[in-house]
């Protein structure tokens, strides 16, 4: 009977151990954030072993210092104290030798330093300490350690065996995460080297973005800003057309004059004419005084008309006149006023289609379309997403007295993979929300809006999807470099820090047809 009970207990213990290892392996696929992973694993170990405290320490190969990456049962102050050199204390000895250590009672071990001061209020003779190395190949990169109440009934060797298996699983995750982070950092470095060589001097101070498509926008701004030419800004909602209008005005010869903005879609037809051109006293019910319109107030300066496609036919006629003749009359008046105004307009609508539907005047279209500037959607500016996200983090840190310092890998993957139908405005709203919700100075994936959670990757496809995202970024950087150097592969490879042979391999990998690209550049 006793033998059967022993067998049953042994079987139950094995089942619980297998369940723990399964849960740990599942946890390792849930995130690219090492601290997030280890925190969850520490909780699982604690639940299984009755662990009092546990920590994962990592060796900094540059400084030789061993620091706590993640811990269970330790306060932040205690974690900050937990720093060791190679060979120092039990942890330092394990990392240096690559061999595990089991201390049944830490009170009997002079090498146990208790540097975190986490055990000062507990009888040390009652605490056992187990520390195993975390290895990648033959290299020890850190240590996994736990302490628990000592008992004659507990097999510390069994705990050692289990921790060694868990350490091996963690090492594999660390190796993968380090590889991804190093590749991502390489791409970031390549991106910075490339962007520094682009003509960044044309980038207006109020706009964030260094992608190739935005560089083209900056060049157009630089060419048109000093003139009085009418500009038509086109692009989807939320791409930053108003910012571009600001950039044109404040880089123009009218920068010290007034910039007046009006959203044509925000005002009803009965009001828009009065807003634009002003009205005389008694012109309509409620017009108890004479009022100057926006064109009159903007004299010598700039007027920005957003959502120009929403103007009524009657207002379109009056706008055409002011563009052609530089003159207008107030509503209800007969006196003609002259005005010297630089006009910038914007729309997210298809004006050509509106013309075919007789909703927009063709002659007005040609007056407005003197110098069109297309603002690309955020999905075509993938290399700008991180810059914009960091910009908005800084903005909302300041506004909300927060100190967000980083974005987790899982959140970064979503930001880079999302299609951004609301463009930069949607990204700003997303970051503002995450900054407000964050409690640990990190933006995690679960802080992003629910609509974005749908693109979270399945557990088995996270690594491949992240690799695909990184490949997309690298492909975009290569195309940007080739376009910047007019299709010259040698020059493009040089600014990317690649040899021509490696550049050729990447062109083949990403299916970039150099001949076709050159032809497209010639036709632009």
Shape: elongated
User: What class do helices, strands and sheet pairing give?
Assistant: alpha/beta
Q: Enumerate the strands of the largest sheet in spatial order, edge to edge or round the barrel.
A: 3-2-1-6-5-4
Provide the CATH architecture of the largest domain. Answer: 2-Layer Sandwich
CATH class of the largest domain: Alpha Beta
Tell how many strands the DSSP assignment holds: 17
Number of helices: 20
CATH superfamily of the largest domain: GAF domain
CATH level 3 topology of the largest domain = Beta-Lactamase
Helix content: 40-55%
Per DSSP, what share of the residues sits in E-state strands of 2 or more residues?
Answer: 15-25%
Number of individual domains:
3
């Amino acid at each position: 009977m006793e033998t059967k009970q022993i067998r049953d207990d042994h079987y139950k213990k094995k089942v619980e151990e297998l369940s723990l290892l399964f849960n740990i392996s599942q946890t390792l696929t849930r995130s690219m954030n090492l601290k997030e992973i280890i925190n969850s694993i520490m909780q699982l170990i604690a639940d299984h072993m009755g662990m009092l405290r546990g920590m994962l320490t990592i060796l900094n190969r540059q400084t030789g210092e061993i620091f706590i990456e993640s811990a269970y049962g330790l306060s932040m102050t205690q974690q900050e104290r937990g720093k060791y050199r190679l060979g120092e204390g039990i942890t330092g000895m394990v990392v240096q030798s690559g061999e595990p250590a089991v201390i049944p009672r830490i009170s009997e071990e002079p090498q146990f330093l208790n540097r975190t001061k986490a055990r000062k209020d507990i009888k040390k003779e009652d605490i056992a300490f187990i520390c195993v190395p975390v290895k990648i190949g033959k290299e020890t990169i850190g240590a996994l350690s736990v302490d628990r109440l000592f008992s004659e009934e507990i097999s510390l060797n069994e705990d050692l065996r289990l921790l060694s298996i868990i350490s091996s699983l963690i090492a594999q995750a660390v190796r993968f995460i380090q590889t991804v982070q190093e590749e991502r950092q390489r791409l970031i470095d390549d991106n910075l080297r490339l962007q520094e060589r682009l003509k960044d001097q044309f980038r207006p101070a109020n706009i964030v973005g260094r992608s190739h498509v935005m560089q083209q926008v900056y060049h157009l701004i630089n060419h048109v800003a000093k003139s009085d030419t009418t500009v038509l800004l086109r692009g989807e909602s939320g791409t930053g057309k108003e910012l571009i209008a600001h950039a044109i005005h404040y880089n123009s010869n009218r920068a010290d004059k007034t910039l007046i903005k009006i959203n044509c879609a925000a005002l009803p037809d009965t009001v828009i004419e009065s807003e634009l051109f002003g009205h005389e006293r008694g012109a309509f019910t409620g017009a108890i005084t004479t009022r100057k319109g926006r064109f009159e107030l903007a004299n010598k300066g700039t007027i920005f008309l957003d959502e120009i496609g929403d103007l009524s036919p009657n207002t379109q006629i009056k706008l055409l006149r002011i563009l052609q003749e530089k003159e207008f009359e107030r509503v209800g008046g007969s006196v003609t006023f002259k005005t010297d105004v630089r006009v910038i307009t914007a729309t997210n609508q298809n004006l050509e289609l509106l013309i075919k539907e007789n909703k927009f005047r063709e002659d007005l279209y040609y007056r407005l379309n003197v110098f069109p500037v297309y603002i690309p959607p955020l999905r075509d500016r993938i290399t700008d997403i991180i810059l914009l996200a960091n910009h908005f983090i800084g903005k909302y840190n300041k506004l909300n007295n927060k100190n967000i310092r980083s974005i987790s890998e899982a959140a970064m993957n979503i930001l880079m993979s999302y299609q951004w139908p609301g463009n930069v405005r949607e990204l700003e709203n997303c970051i503002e929300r995450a900054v407000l919700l964050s409690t640990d100075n990190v933006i995690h994936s679960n802080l992003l809006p629910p609509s974005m959670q749908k693109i979270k990757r399945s557990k088995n496809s996270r690594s491949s999807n992240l690799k695909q995202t990184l490949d997309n970024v690298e492909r975009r950087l290569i195309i940007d470099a080739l376009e910047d150097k007019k299709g010259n592969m040698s020059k493009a490879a040089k600014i990317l820090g690649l040899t021509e042979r490696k550049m050729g391999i990447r062109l083949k990998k990403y299916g970039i047809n150099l001949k076709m690209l050159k032809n497209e550049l010639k036709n632009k």
